[in-house]
């Protein structure tokens, strides 16, 4: 069962995904979450606190849906794990759509918000390092610099593909095919 703060953060991700950062009003967030505005201020202090914690929530949720597997599922090879982890960011589900749209809104707002920019930079670096580590499991002899660069390219591409797909600029199947091709190209470059 979700805690009250998780309930609020889930609602915040939904509101940000639909209305953007500028559309995030505490009163509307309270209504969406089914709680009082006082409770939101109790948990998050102010609007910046809501944004920062929503970014953490989105990252945690993405981590969950890209890494959780059924206990009886067969183990994946390092290559399969890399591909699955990245491709799970391009799923046509409400949760992934909300997460990706909210991430895009937070990224766009970070252009003008230095604190949010720092939080987003840390989250992006962590994600890039996780992808680089997966690449390193596939190509263990590659240099750390090459792995980091490949991880950065793949995560940046994935963000762009996600935004194009969400915005109707391409079909999800095409986005997934482009991502698979990029994974092949990066792995070939690491050999």
Give a verbal description of the structure:
Helix content is 77%, strand content 0%. The mean pLDDT is 95. The chain is elongated. The chain has nine helices and no strands. Helix 1 crosses helix 6 and helix 6 crosses helix 8.
Give the overall pLDDT as a whole number. Answer: 95
Classify the beta-strand content into a percent band. under 5%
Order of helices and strands: HHHHHHHHH
- Global outline: elongated
Structural class: mainly alpha
Q: DSSP helix count?
A: 9
Q: Based on DSSP secondary structure assignment, what is the total number of beta strands?
A: 0
| Radius of gyration over all CA atoms, rounded | 18 Å
Proportion of residues in helical segments: over 70%
Q: Mind summarizing the main beta sheet?
A: none
Unreliably modeled segments? none
Distance from first to last alpha carbon? 46 Å
Q: What tags apply to this protein structure?
A:
191 residues, mainly alpha, 77% helix, 0% strand
Q: What is the structure about, briefly put?
A:
The protein is an all-alpha fold.
Topology of this structure?
Blueprint: H1 4-19, H2 26-33, H3 37-44, H4 47-67, H5 78-87, H6 94-110, H7 114-138, H8 144-166, H9 172-190
Helix pairs in contact: 1-2, 1-4, 1-6, 4-6, 4-7, 5-7, 6-7, 6-8, 7-8, 8-9
């Amino acid at each position: 069962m979700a805690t009250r703060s998780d309930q609020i953060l889930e609602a915040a991700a939904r509101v940000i995904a639909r209305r953007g950062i500028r559309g995030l009003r505490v009163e509307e967030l309270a209504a969406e979450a089914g709680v009082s505005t006082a409770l939101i201020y109790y948990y998050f202090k102010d609007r910046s606190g809501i944004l920062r914690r929503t970014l953490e929530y989105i990252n945690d949720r993405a981590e969950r849906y890209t890494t959780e597997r059924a206990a009886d599922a067969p183990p994946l090879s390092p290559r399969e794990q890399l591909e699955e982890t990245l491709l799970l960011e391009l799923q046509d589900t409400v949760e992934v759509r909300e997460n990706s749209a909210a991430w895009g809104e937070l990224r766009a707002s970070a252009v003008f918000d230095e604190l949010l920019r720092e939080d987003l930079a840390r989250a992006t670096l962590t994600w890039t390092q996780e992808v680089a580590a997966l690449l390193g499991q596939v190509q263990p002899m590659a240099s750390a610099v090459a792995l980091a660069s490949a991880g950065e390219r793949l995560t940046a591409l994935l963000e762009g593909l996600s935004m194009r797909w969400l915005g109707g600029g391409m079909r999800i199947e095409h986005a997934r095919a482009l991502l698979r091709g990029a994974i092949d190209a990066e792995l070939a470059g690491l050999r």
